[in-house]
UniProtKB/TrEMBL annotation:
Location within or outside the cell: Bacterial flagellum basal body
The entry's keywords: Bacterial flagellum, Cell projection, Cilium, Flagellum
Membrane-spanning intervals of the chain: none
Main subcellular location: other
Residues forming coiled coils: none
Domain Flagellar basal body rod protein N-terminal: 5-35
All copies of domain Flagellar hook protein FlgE/F/G-like D1, residue ranges: 81-145
InterPro entries: Flag_bb_rod_N, Flagellar_basal_body_rod_CS, Flagellar_FlgE/F/G, Flg_bb/hook_C_dom, FlgE/F/G-like, FlgF, LlgE_F_G-like_D1
Annotated Flagellar basal-body/hook protein C-terminal domain residues: 198-242
Organism: Variovorax ureilyticus
The family this protein is said to belong to: Belongs to the flagella basal body rod proteins family.
Protein name as it appears in the record: Flagellar basal-body rod protein FlgF
Keyword Metal-binding appears in the UniProt entry: no
Record text on subunit structure and interactions: The basal body constitutes a major portion of the flagellar organelle and consists of five rings (E,L,P,S, and M) mounted on a central rod. The rod consists of about 26 subunits of FlgG in the distal portion, and FlgB, FlgC and FlgF are thought to build up the proximal portion of the rod with about 6 subunits each.
């Protein structure tokens, strides 16, 4: 009976954790540049002095869904969408991180940042826009600024956004939702083949219908595991009665 309890108990626990992951995907259906989490189950033998006849169920997150999300034209001069594979680079307290979130803004100090306030990294460091300037972003990520009263020729080139395209197997998602190189790997180098579309933004690649179906499936899986626990308890009670009156 205890073997049945092991599987059902750990299965119910992991079904709840997977439900939380799917719920997080569902909550980010409208988050620009969001990458859906991919989950799976695996069996983990219980290690001990006794015979290896017990196993737990563990949920794993092997990675993320790196398919491109839908691109929407916005006409906003600071919106960019990465074409195909590739990432924008932002600066965090722990170093460089990678994102597909392209709704950028200019901070009070003129620095180009994400809506979350993280500075966007350029090929030569930070990117700073002169106050009151209109901005144009080229396909290669180059940013030019035109201040009021300046001639149309000789535009001020602010810099070029650092665009990278490391192997997805080398990336891992952090708790802040940003991707980083795995432990021990150096930061990704700029890739000139990565381009962007200005005046557009990439949406989340979460399919709301698939996420809803997954939530229902996880709920039913949890109910099935709980019924298995109840069945194991009833079987144990019946066995105790047979032993008591046998």
């Amino acid at each position: 009976m205890d073997r049945m309890l092991y599987v059902a108990m750990s299965g119910a626990k992991q079904a709840m954790e997977q439900q939380a992951s799917v719920a997080n995907n569902m909550a980010n259906v409208s988050t620009p540049g969001f990458r859906a989490q991919i989950n799976a189950f695996r069996a983990v033998p219980v290690v001990g002095e006794a015979s290896p006849t017990r196993a737990f169920v563990a949920a794993t997150t092997p990675g993320a869904d790196f398919r491109q999300g839908p691109v929407t034209d916005t006409g906003r001069e600071l919106d960019v969408a990465v074409r195909g594979d590739g990432w924008l680079v932002v600066q965090t307290p722990t170093g460089e991180a990678y994102t597909r979130v392209g709704n950028l803004q200019v901070a009070s100090d003129g620095q180009v940042t994400t809506m979350g306030g993280r500075p966007v990294v350029g090929d030569g460091g930070g990117l700073v826009i002169p106050p009151g300037s209109s901005v144009t972003i080229a396909a290669d990520g180059s940013i030019t600024a035109h201040a009021p009263g300046d001639p149309l020729t000789g535009l001020n080139i602010v810099g070029r956004m650092k665009l990278v395209n490391p192997p997805v197997a080398d990336l891992e998602r952090g708790e802040d939702g940003l991707f980083r190189m795995r432990q021990g790997l150096p930061p990704a180098e700029a890739d000139p083949a990565v381009t962007v579309t200005a005046g557009a933004i990439e949406g989340s690649n979460v399919n709301p219908v698939e996420a809803m179906v997954a939530m229902i499936a996880n709920g039913r899986s949890f109910e099935m595991q709980m019924k298995s626990i109840q069945s194991a308890d009833l079987n144990a009670q019946s066995a105790n009665k047979l032993l008591a009156y046998g």
